[in-house]
Amino acid sequence: MLHSHLTTLNAVSLIVNAFKAEGLPAETLLAGSGICTADLSRADTCITTNQEMRVCANAVALRRDVGLELGRKMHVSSYGMLGYALLTCATFGDALRLALRYPALLGTLFELSLENDGERIWLTAADYRETPALEMFNVEFCLVSLKLICDDLLGQPLPLLGARFEYSAPDYHARYRECFACSLHFEASANAFAFDKRWLDQPLPLADAVTHHTVAERCRKQNLEFTGRQAWLGRIRHLLAAQLHAAPGIEGLAEQMNCSARTLRRHLHDLGSSYQELLDELRFDRAKQLLGQDELPIYRIAEQLGFSETASFRHAFVRWSGVAPSQFRP
């Protein structure tokens, strides 16, 4: 997906650790993502949301309600410098508004907003644009982790006045009450939870004006750097996506980016990626789209993706998805 952006390894690390107690090797969860176990020990590693979604899909295939479990482990401390900035805000409302100001640092896949509904404030997650099959997982993960952040900031559970979800109630919906402890509404018009608006003025127990000023400035600079790297990666992805039928290679792509191949390799490595991983990711995305068109023969799909032989495409698709192209078709 060309809107895919960069994110941290926080969620991936949580998923791996969540299944570690069951004896499931990390390689099983990382399969097809292009992430290796060594990456998990590098705090500065950046990955794309497509890579993160591959790991999430592997986890959901093993346990459908894993989004609720993971959300309850995503404490405010998981967000690094941003988490520290939130904790040192003067009020709860200040902290929420700061979090929404830096969605790249928050790592959210949604457009988050605070909506005033009389006496209530709805913290809403909208405009989801990632893998449709993982929408429910991502809503669960997002809202449960946001509720946990609220609790962490206040130093006590934030009482909720309601929670609503756009999809039908899953068969494990009883577990939702463990996370939200309020009235639940499914097949609603939005994904959100509500609380009394008076909480916005609640002073935070760890507020510190001097420390907050320092870390908030670091967040601002980190956000500029992060979004700049996303824009750079977005340009690479756009160039590659337009040339899947005849990929330019690392040298050709570097020339189009007005840099040396060595510089391009270094930048991609710093982003936790490589030319081949990006090419595979884009080919996989395009392959899934083309396979949805029943009238297009598989050998034609292979040609459009730049494979000289259909067998090579079949082998690559099995490596990406775990199934043959013919099995993937609806």
Automatic annotation (TrEMBL):
Keywords: DNA-binding, Transcription, Transcription regulation
Domain HTH araC/xylS-type: 234-330
SUPFAM superfamilies listed in its UniProt record: Homeodomain-like
A cellular-component GO term for this protein: cytosol
The keyword Glycoprotein is assigned to this record: no
One MF term in the entry's GO annotations: transcription cis-regulatory region binding
PANTHER family: HTH-TYPE TRANSCRIPTIONAL REGULATOR GADX, HTH-TYPE TRANSCRIPTIONAL REGULATOR VQSM
This protein's name: AraC family transcriptional regulator
